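Changelog note: in this version the structure field was regenerated for every chain. One regenerated record is shown below for reference.
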Amino acid sequence: MNILVIGNDQHLEECKGKFGSKHVYQLAYGHQAAEKFFGSSEVIFDFIIDKHPDQMEVYRDHPQIVAFLNTARTSLLQLAAGFKGRLDCTLFGFNGMHTFIQREILEVSLLRQDSHEQLSTLCGQLQTPYLVVDDRVGMVTPRVICMIINEAYYTWQEGTATPDDIDTGMKLGTNYPYGPFEWCRRIGVLEVYELLEAVYNDTKDERYKICALLKKEYLKEKITRQ
């Protein structure tokens, strides 16, 4: 299968790790550069559309393509509704947050319910189990894991326990593979913060209100990236 990855080198490696080396991969660092590969690609994994929703227009004139769009920080419906033109191609949402695509199950959402059979066939070709979740900001796993990380920052901020103690307690008490701070380091504090911000703005649920200490870590990381 010919797979086009829109994103960066890390996204490409994550796809190779998930789907294996038996497929033919192409990498495009941006949407304009990606269009030249649309004709030869059987499926597209777009990791950066959530940060560049204005680039939805690249999908307008290619009704034959099938694309998985990263909707961890948005929703598939928001992306489609925010585009003024007509989209005739087949679009799915997927959890493209860093490290999550490497899970055994591919977390996906549907724009049209009648595309479920096509999704099943496609995931069969990719040889990956999948789980259809509600098309909401944060999907399921990202919002749960990032909420746990946020709560861990509150615990640290209150002086109840150190990050190492919290990580150890969570792993021993819940049998999680990583503690909250380990998970945050693996995902990246920028992605964790931006996911929580998106979910909070969408729901106004206090459970997702970002801890001041986490925000401080986020701002420090942003400075180092400049």
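Spot check on this record: Residues 163 and 223 are 23 Å apart (CA to CA). The chain has a mean pLDDT of 95.
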